[in-house]
Amino acid sequence: MSQSKRPTLTTEAGAPVSDNQHSQTVGPGGPVLLQDHHLLEKLARFNRERIPERVVHAVGSGAYGTFEVTSRDVSRYTRMKLFSAVGKKTEVFLRFSTVAGSKGAPDTARDPRGFGVRFYTEDGNWDLVGNNTPVFFLRDGIKFPDFIHSQKYDPYTNCQEPDNVWDFFSYSPEATHQFTWLFGDRGIPASLRHMDGFGSHTFQWVNAQGERFWVKFHFKTDQGIRTLTTPEAEALGGKDPQHHQRDLYKAIERGEFPSWTLKVQVMPEADAANYRFNPFDLTKVWPYKDFPLMEVGKLTLDRNPENFFAEVEQAALDPANFVPGIGPSPDRMLQARLFAYGDAHRYRLGINSTQLPVNSPRGVKGGARNYGRDGAMRFDGNGGRGPNYEPNSFGGPAQTDEAPGVGYAVNGLTGTYVHGKHAEDDDFVQAGALYRLMTEPQKQRLVENISGSLAQVSRDDIIARAIAHFRAADEEYGSRIATSVQQLRRAR
Fold first, then answer.
1. What residue ranges do the domains of the chain occupy?
2. Dihedral class, residue 104 (left if φ above 0, else alpha if ψ from -120 to 50, else beta)
3. Where are the active-site residues found (predicted)?
4. Summary mean pLDDT of the chain
5. What is the arithmetic mean of pLDDT over 203-223?
6. What residues have CB less than 8 Å from 406, skipping those under 6 apart?
7. Distance CA 411, CA 420 (A)
8. Is 131 a catalytic residue?
9. pLDDT tens digit string along 159-204?
């Protein structure tokens, strides 16, 4: 159907939507605006579509451990106390998860893995909520509900439909890089212990002198990378849908504690404006030759939760949980997540879920101090006789008057904008480069994995659009997929 004949997309109130692809920002490179009603409405509705499990990342595992600064004092880049001295230790909780499956789905599915780390710091909880991939399918959070709908069960068949998955992808060329990751060998880790983790987004560091830097976080597995082929994963998942959960639990129980080395890439604040591509684009990586990895410390998991529901199912990690020395960047996906995660937790677990032991700031002496009161499941003294307002003259907690130091300059008119163009912004260059880095057997498995799914699509136009993206990344890449899809369809 042509665009001109299609019905007009509207808000819940029936108002026409002028742009469903881009959030409102301050200029092409600025932060997302709270006034973007369409964005907030989409995210708020999306968070309330499923009860009681998580909308995404429902299939999860978790464990406790310790992070220790081992090899580099990064205080010249950030004033986070967590990194203030070599040898400093901080308690952590790490939740792993698949993205699309509902509870009970096999945890060996081909899917990105959530890699969410909570650091119980002395300044409060810092939640670094990323994935086992350094990139993602999208660069703007306004498209996230639509993307997940394309991956979830179809409203008519109640099954995941390849038509929906590939139709959305065919209109979202920015996903080509992540699709190449997902359908490659690393798309199915052999275990949660044998995969890397990433903060994925670009974040802001601020040091004691007020200087700002952009930073990316990489957790490199000390166990080495191991993966499963599609047949191996299907066999394991069929026999034991909780294979990865069981492997993690058993490894920790027998004292074989998994660990990851944290490394960072750091970009001076001024370099971002003229970098060859948008450094806040979640569909891209920063090449190591431009910004080398610097080792920071080691994260080790050494304790299983005593009760899965209390400590893993009720864990509510939130990327908006920052501490002094770190803050957000103009990454539009990150900006959307700063709202969406906390909103999802408040809906799913309730307004007082931050008081649950797994979510409370256990690194802070005396715990959280604020004027939150009442609400469902308030299970402490509810503030007792103390005032529930601020400012007050009764000795209640007061603001620090210390500048957080995480601002950055913005300019421009409010509105919806395509990302500002950098010299080498492109949806396909990094996907093609990743393909060309692969060995021939890795390329063959990648092509087989993609074509096996794409060949199930019923419409030729969807297949053609999808293949065009892979051809744009690398002509050989796309041609091999096209040939394989044709062969599979003829065989059926």
1. 22-364+416-421, 428-492
2. left
3. 57, 131
4. 93
5. 96
6. 204, 206, 212, 322, 326, 327, 328
7. 13
8. yes
9. 999 999 999 999 999 999 999 999 999 999 999 999 999 999 999 9
Using one digit for the tens of pLDDT, what is the confidence trace for 300-348? 999 999 999 899 999 999 999 999 999 999 999 999 999 999 999 999 9
Token pair for 203 = 């974040």
Catalytic choice (125, 131, 352, 359): 131
**Which listed residue (22, 38, 57, 201) is catalytic?**
57
**Which stretch of DSSP H or E encloses residue 168?**
helix 162-170
**Any idea how long the chain is?**
492
User: Tokens for 72?
Assistant: 């580099």
Is 371 flagged in the annotation as binding?
no
DSSP designation for 341: H
Which bin fits 256, alpha (ψ -120 to 50), beta or left (φ > 0)? beta
Q: What are phi and psi of 193, to 5 degrees?
A: -80, -20
Q: Look-up: residue for tokens 């410390």?
A: 297
pLDDT, tens digit, 9 for 90 and up, residues 43-95: 888 887 755 777 788 889 999 999 999 987 798 999 999 999 999 999 999 99
Q: Which two tokens stand for residue 2?
A: 């042509």
